[in-house]
């Protein structure tokens, strides 16, 4: 094979070309010429022709990584190579070296060749032997203390004791003695002896410490610092914390003795308890804090008397429109009782005492509805913020936006029982003018000129007879074609009835609702007030449920005593919990097992849930 540039025999640095090697094929398919070379150290290496010509490669690697084993660099002698370790972005060759002092150290190759490191650090260490720092004289170097980075030194104090101190503490002046000079201050001991702080009297100072011997009024001895005494951080030997309260009288309570058992707080702390006897004869245990602060004054009998007095005062009192009748058995979550009150309108309502006293509850709800209706009447018509004075009364009548038109429409619905008189449908009903609205001004609000039709029948009628020139003959003909001649006669008799006034035109318009359950129950023409009384939901809640298409959940909980078979019905688990004198969480958790034990009685719980759906119909007047 003929080669264009034959490099055989040529020398490049320490490499001599021996022969042509197999070419290298790159990913792109290009072939790169390579030569087998022999280095002066005896090693062979395959090198690219480009690297040889550009003098990028001049050895097998012996120049970059020389063998340093056995060579000396200052005080360090290379023992053996540890290979390459990746540090930063370069692969560094590291060696294990031994210092003349006997220590071994791992050093990077570049640091050895550049003579940056020539020892293990012993030549840089400072020798403090023989030096004197304040009251300490350095004897020798000591082993390092646990947790200290600096070198430690064994020192002898002026008092004769030896101690180990870090070098930086010696030179910085942080440690001056073995501790004997620590409490040698200018405090006049004689001046403080005999002084009294709260219940403690100073007797003398403890040697080589900051503490003073003190005697308490109770006779016990203790130690404390001057700071603790002067700043009232220590007032006694500890007798104040657990005093003897025997014979102490607090309100109606008299302390008898110390209780053997401690009272555990919610935080888990246990406090000493004292057995107390009340004037009523009951015995009960209380903590020292409750007795000293006066938080307790009786075993609970005084509170019962106060509650009885409040109950007597509440009966017969008037709060707004409400008069208190009696105390309810129901309790709030915080333990407060409800009061049954009668409103001036005749309704009864259960109200908390706090809401009555603070004026939050003044009626059963009728006062709020009256105020709302009066407020709405004040902003209707010309007083409404969106009132447009540029529109005439005739234009409003043509748009059918008058209160008279709404009242006439509702009157027609009530007379026809909210039912289409042609097909009998109760959904999407409309009030149809028998003599058309625009041509007969005098008959616009006459009840005899209206009839209830569903949207489909209404549209079919006007598609057949248009919206102009309508009369009673067209209506009877339309009914006859759909329902027959006999049914048409009943409609004709309905139209011949005398005029009656069903609705006051100025009456307030309310929506009507249809309620039906998942178990087949159904109620038509129910108002929001009826829904509130039956299901206990407010009007705003009913509207929200209609928009979200969510059901009203009516739940009944049956509690049966197994011995007697007596069954009582409750609306919530909370009421059951009050009866059984336990928590609602316990009732819910144990209700899964059906049987509940309460002292010596057993109960069975059964739950019945029924879903009610509400659909809005047309309007009714109030």
Features:
alpha+beta; flat; 4-stranded antiparallel sheet; 6-stranded antiparallel sheet; single chain; 7 domains; 622 residues; 18 helices
Task: Provide an overview of this structure.
This protein is an alpha+beta fold and 622 residues long. The chain has seven domains: 72-123, no CATH class; 126-172; 189-230, no CATH class; 249-302, no CATH class; 315-370, no CATH class; 393-507, no CATH class; 511-621, no CATH class. It has 18 helices and 36 strands. Helix 13 (472-483) packs antiparallel against helix 14 and helix 17 packs across helix 18 (584-590).
Oligomeric form: single chain
- CA(first)-CA(last) distance: 115 Å
Q: Give the overall average pLDDT.
A: 78
Q: What coarse outline follows from CA principal-axis ratios? A: flat
Query: Helical segment tally?
Result: 18
Number of domains: 7
Low-confidence stretches: 498-510, 618-622
Strand content: 25-35%
User: In angstroms, what is the radius of gyration?
Assistant: 52 Å
Instruction: Give helix % range.
Output: 10-25%
- Category from helices, strands and their pairing: alpha+beta
Q: What does the largest sheet look like?
A: 6 strands, antiparallel
Strand count: 36
């Amino acid at each position: 094979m003929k080669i264009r540039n034959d490099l055989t025999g040529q020398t490049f640095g320490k490499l001599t070309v021996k022969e042509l090697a197999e070419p290298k094929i790159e990913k792109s398919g290009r072939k790169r010429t390579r030569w087998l070379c022999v280095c002066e150290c005896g090693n062979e290496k395959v090198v690219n022709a480009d690297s040889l010509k550009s003098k990028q490669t001049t050895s097998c690697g012996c120049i970059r990584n020389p063998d340093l084993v056995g060579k000396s660099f200052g005080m360090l002698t290379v023992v053996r190579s540890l290979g390459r370790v990746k540090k930063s972005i370069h692969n560094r060759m590291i060696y294990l070296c031994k210092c003349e002092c006997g220590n071994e150290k791992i050093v990077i190759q570049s640091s050895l060749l550049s003579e940056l490191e020539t020892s293990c650090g012993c030549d840089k260490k400072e020798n403090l032997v023989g030096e004197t720092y304040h009251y300490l004289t350095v004897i020798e170097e000591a082993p390092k203390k646990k947790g200290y980075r600096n070198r430690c030194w064994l020192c002898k104090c002026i008092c004769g004791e030896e101690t180990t101190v870090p070098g930086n503490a010696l030179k910085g002046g942080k440690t001056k003695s073995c501790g004997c000079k620590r409490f040698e201050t200018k405090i006049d001991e004689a001046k403080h002896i005999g002084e009294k702080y709260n219940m403690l009297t100073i007797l003398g100072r403890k040697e080589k410490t900051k503490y003073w011997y003190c005697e308490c009024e109770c006779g016990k001895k203790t130690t404390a610092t001057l700071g603790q005494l002067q700043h009232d951080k220590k007032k006694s030997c500890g007798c104040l914390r657990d005093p003897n309260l025997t014979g102490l009288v607090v309100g109606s309570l008299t302390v008898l003795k110390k209780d053997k058992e401690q009272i555990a707080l919610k935080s888990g702390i246990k406090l000493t308890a004292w057995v107390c006897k009340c004037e009523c004869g009951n015995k009960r245990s209380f903590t020292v804090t409750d007795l000293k602060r006066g938080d307790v004054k009786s075993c609970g009998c005084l509170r019962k008397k106060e509650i009885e007095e409040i109950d007597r005062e509440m009966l017969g009192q008037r709060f707004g429109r409400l008069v208190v009748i009696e105390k309810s058995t129901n309790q709030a979550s915080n333990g407060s009782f409800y009061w049954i009150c009668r409103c001036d309108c005749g309704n009864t309502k259960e109200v908390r005492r706090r809401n009555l006293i603070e004026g939050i509850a003044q009626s059963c709800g009728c006062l709020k509805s009256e105020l709302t209706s009066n407020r709405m009447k004040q902003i209707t018509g010309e007083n409404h913020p969106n009132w447009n004075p540029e529109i005439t009364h005739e234009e409003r009548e043509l748009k059918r936006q008058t209160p008279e038109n709404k009242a006439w429409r509702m009157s027609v619905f009530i007379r026809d029982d909210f039912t289409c008189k042609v097909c009998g449908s109760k959904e999407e009903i409309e009030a149809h003018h028998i003599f058309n609205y625009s041509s007969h001004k005098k008959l616009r609000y006459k009840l005899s000129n209206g009839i209830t039709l569903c949207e489909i029948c209404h549209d079919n009628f006007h598609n057949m007879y248009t919206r102009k020139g309508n009369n009673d003959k067209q209506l009877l003909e339309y009914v006859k074609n759909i329902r027959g001649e006999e049914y048409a006669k009943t409609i004709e008799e309905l139209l011949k009835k005398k005029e009656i006034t069903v609705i006051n035109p100025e009456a307030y318009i309310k929506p009507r609702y249809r309620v039906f359950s998942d178990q087949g129950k159904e109620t038509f023409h129910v108002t929001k007030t009826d829904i509130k009384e039956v299901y206990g939901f407010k009007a705003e809640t009913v509207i929200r449920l209609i928009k979200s298409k969510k059901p009203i959940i009516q739940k009944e909980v049956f509690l049966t005593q197994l011995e007697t078979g007596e069954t009582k019905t409750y609306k919530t688990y909370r009421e059951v919990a009050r009866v059984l004198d336990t928590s609602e969480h316990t009732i819910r958790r144990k209700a899964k097992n059906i049987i509940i034990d309460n002292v010596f009685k057993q109960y069975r719980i059964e739950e019945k849930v029924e879903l009610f759906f509400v659909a809005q119909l047309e309007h009714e007047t109030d």
